[in-house]
Give the backbone structure.
Amino acid sequence: MASIDLKLPEALGRDGLSLSGVAVAAPGLLFVAPDEGGSVLRMAHHDGAFRAKDAYSVGGLVPVAGEPDDEIDLEGLDVRDGWLWLAGSHSAVRTRIKKSTPDADVPGLLAAVKYPAARRLLARIPLVDTQNGLQPTASRRRSNGSTVMAASLRTDGLHTALQNDPHLGPWLTQPGKDNGLDIEGLAVIGNTVVLLGLRGPVLRGWAVLLHVTPRQAAEQSRLEIDAPVAHFLDLAGLGIRDLARHGNDLLILAGPTMLLDGPSRVLRLRGAGAELPPVVVRERDIEQVGPDLAVGVGEDHPEGIAVVEQNGESVLLVIYDSPADARVYGTTVRAELRSLS
């Protein structure tokens, strides 16, 4: 299987090589979200690899709740019509149990759940075209003289909109790794409709795709939304780990909602990259793209997808969380390239 190197900043270190989101800004230009922290990397294709050019602190562009160093847990990225869209996981967190944790401490730690405010981020950031390519900025002047600003939904905006939802409301306080609310994919269709793919909850084997239509609030740095609309997809028990547009189609990276290694596969939903899918999408209406992705044991989990150009052909780029040692060379991590035919 073909692959391509992503050369990341040395400052990230080994722990920073887990990647959670990716989007194509232009041919040969990517935005990538490391799994830790609150920054987005801009990466350009050069000499057969993607190399990090700049890192942008999201909190320096839009309002982000919590402390400056809090992890945003960026998961969903997309670029559309001069905007970079970002979504945090919005998930609650149960304390991780390590192999070194004393048995006596396990029950108490498993009862500890946190609700990080920084993760509740949905934002759009304007892009400016410079001699070095598209770059995110806090504000951009339009050709008509008006100014557009980076903006984000208020911290509890999505939770508030979903709190009375009969399907998702009961899961808002459950940790993401426990099948609670966990946003992992984002794709923009048309000019304003944002699709949010949920890793969880998976309801009786049905995955959930939300669509929202953010609009500018009176306060220029803020977005507002009406109640999200849920679409239910029969993904054979898997959740949505990422979304990407391919022409008029929507590509779905499907994987387990809880702490399992697999399976992981790429699926195609015809037409959903241009128009909203039905509220109910049956398994028969979803096509699998190629064989299942290889997954490691406790590592090497497919986490993000994007459609890139390689030798004049559109191919699928797959990035990984917890990359295996065989995928890592210093601060370079190897992504996979797969055929879309």
In short: Residues 3-339 form a domain with the Tachylectin-2; Chain A fold (CATH 2.115.10). The CA atoms of residues 39 and 57 lie 4 Å apart. The chain has one domain: 3-339.
